[in-house]
Amino acid sequence: MAFPDHDVYRTFLSIRPQIQRFLQQRLRCPDTAADLLQDIYLRLVRLTPPPASEVEARAWLFTVASNLSIDHLRGQKRRGDLLDQYLGEETEADLGAEPDRTLQAQDQLLQIQTALAQLPDLCAEILYLSRIEGLSHAEIAKQLNISVSWVEKQLAKALLHCRQAVDDENT
Questions:
Q1: Domain range list for the chain
Q2: H helix and E strand count, the chain
């Protein structure tokens, strides 16, 4: 039996503060978190198939919050990359750096960005949550509703992939 629509909205309203804190911690911007929270609310109408329980509804809400925050951060990074590409600001540190080291660092950054783009979404999200957000393996497992063992395996896979990408280019 499907979870009634009004119960889905009630669940959303009951965990809204938790979702907002979650988004604020990830995005470091209360305004953006509020915007994404509104977007989640608007998506409730399109929720098909409806969740079978409150637990399923909560999991869906946090999954959507996680995905929206990742999409937002990726969009911000893309915009920043485009601005850097077209406006590029050189600082005194950039001008004074050794050209060889600067070129090597840029190449290595490009290799890592390429390697990260090749990772499956879940693997990349686990790496992000671990290295950028600073979450423990247990916290990641709980947030993504997967086992700690799977988190550890995917994290090792992501790190190995990035290391191999850099090592392959350097040999």
A1: 1-88, 98-171
A2: 8, 0
Cα–Cα–Cα angle for 13, 19, 20, rounded to 5 degrees: 95
pTM: 0.49
Give 99: exposed, middle or buried? Use CB within 10 Å, 0-12, 13-18, 19+.
exposed
1-88 and 98-171 share one CATH topology? Answer: no
Cα angle 78-39-141, degrees, rounded to a multiple of 5? 75
CATH number of 1-88: 1.10.1740
**Interval 24-47: pLDDT, tens:** 999 988 999 999 999 999 888 888
Q: Is the distance from CB of 127 to CB of 146 less than 8 angstroms? A: no
The answer to whether 50 touches 3, Cβ cutoff 8 Å, is: yes
63-87 pLDDT, tens digit per residue, is 999 999 998 888 888 888 777 777 7
Architecture in CATH for domain 98-171? Orthogonal Bundle (1.10)
How far apart, in whole angstroms, are the C-alpha atoms of residue 61 and residue 96? 49
